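---------- Forwarded message ----------

FYI, see the succinate dehydrogenase record below. Original note from H. follows.
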Amino acid sequence: MAEQSTVTFIITRQDSPESSPYQETFNIPYKRNMNVISGLMEIRQNPVNANGEKTSPVQWDMNCLEEVCGACSMVINGTARQSCAALIDELEQPVRLKPMNTFPVVRDLFVDREQMFDSLKQIKAWIPIDGTYDLGEGPRMPEKKRQWAYELSKCMSCGVCLEACPNVNDKSDFIGPAALSQARLFNAHPTGEMNKSERLEGLMEDGGISGCGNAQNCVQVCPKGIPLTTSIAAMNRATNIQSFKNFFGSDHAH
């Protein structure tokens, strides 16, 4: 194969949250081992489209550049993924970039993932401890449990699983697979377990676990290989047990 000298990007752009999207094409110099973000940086440095017209730099979100922060998710050639890990040599040309559909567009490829963080609030994805005095070391997590909990902790709230899930859309308030798995993570923690029922109650609210249609798209697209469907099944069982406890609990005993 002849060494290519340029890479063509066809980018879906949007000037503001209210304006209509449009496409703009860019030809940029090819470099070995370049990823999508290095291409976008090239455009930012020299914002001239394929027609030779000066244009505004393309906006996108990024931070770590090593597939840990989750910020640079976008739809690349029809698949939602991290743009830092998307190598040009492995992509079909021209490279088509679009913002994720599931989230409101701020500008161009930059979307607002706030709904993911609201979902984490709904399921109380933290471990509340009283920080006013030293409680000493918490209980140790058994090694076997720690190993699978670590897999769940790799979630970076990138939004790719929500983009792939057919049940996450503007006609549904389903919080999506990531938050369901995070409830499992924090309920597995020896200290977090104290607030287990509160997280399960969050999953039982509107938009919670009942919104899952078991499409299993999420587990196929997760860039961290998190066993999302296993977590959802575990949380399904746990919420069923919790609903029995609620029904036969102290409120009904009196």
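H. also flagged this: The first helix runs from residue 36 to 45.
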